[in-house]
């Protein structure tokens, strides 16, 4: 359906939009697995041009068009294919792939960047979390574990409440934004607000050159392409979780306030055997 729509409205498109359309028509398999920034670079256009082209043919944005394109190609669920090749066919191969991906993260994120982010988190009055959809659970887990360590944190999956609460922050706080694609509108809005308030921002993502990256003061990008899932909404978030674990580990080594967390843990200890 996406391909049909591109062809249907092609003659009505502006010249820059046609460059996007031409690339998608000629490289359908590659385009469906690209981020908006990657497609902009490959087609020699911009994020804004891609969004205009998608809206021109009836979609709300690039992500919605990709879902339709993936459906056209029969690749909404690509568990048996990774970058055009057959993926793991047994449990050993599957877990070996995950292990390799985690090892690759160590080459994408340097130690100094990680330590800088850990220091910001440790010293912050409040660590605000921003995430949406699947990454929301990662942010909620991170916030809970920070609180357990004695570091004040805030997370809400209600965008309006999250934005209003972030609006009370200042430069003594920090915003940790988590977005696998780097294109979540709610996350981008939170990062823009943080920028206006002078709140330092840390972005955890798997997608380089995204809209969210442009707003981040500190970037922790995993940049791993060969993942076991490529279906929409089913992406693996193991790598983002690994980055969260690393931040928690180094935040603790940099003087976490675990004593405060221990007091509340003792109060709630009656709920566990």
Tags for this model:
2 domains; 53% helix; Rossmann fold; two-stranded antiparallel sheet; alpha/beta; Arc Repressor Mutant, subunit A; globular; 7 strands; 273 residues
**Which oligomeric state applies?**
single chain
CATH topology of the largest domain: Rossmann fold
> How far is it from the N-terminal to the C-terminal residue, by CA?
56 Å
Uncertain ranges: 76-83
Task: Supply the CATH architecture of the largest domain.
Answer: 3-Layer(aba) Sandwich
Average per-residue pLDDT, rounded, comes to 86
CATH H-tier superfamily of the largest domain: Glucose-6-phosphate isomerase like protein, domain 1
Structural class: alpha/beta
Main pleated sheet: 5 strands, parallel
Task: Count the DSSP helices.
Answer: 13
CATH class category name of the largest domain? Alpha Beta
- The total beta strand count reads 7
Major beta sheet, strand line-up:
4-3-5-6-7
Radius of gyration: 21 Å
Report strand %: 5-15%
Total number of domains: 2
Tell me the overall shape: globular
Give the SSE order as H and E letters: HHHHHHEEHHEHEHEHEEHH
How much helicity do the residues have? Answer: 40-55%
Protein name: MurR/RpiR family transcriptional regulator
Keywords: DNA-binding, Transcription, Transcription regulation
InterPro entries: Homeodomain-like_sf, HTH_RpiR, RpiR-like, RpiR-like_SIS, SIS_dom, SIS_dom_sf, WH-like_DNA-bd_sf
GO molecular function: carbohydrate derivative binding; DNA binding; DNA-binding transcription factor activity
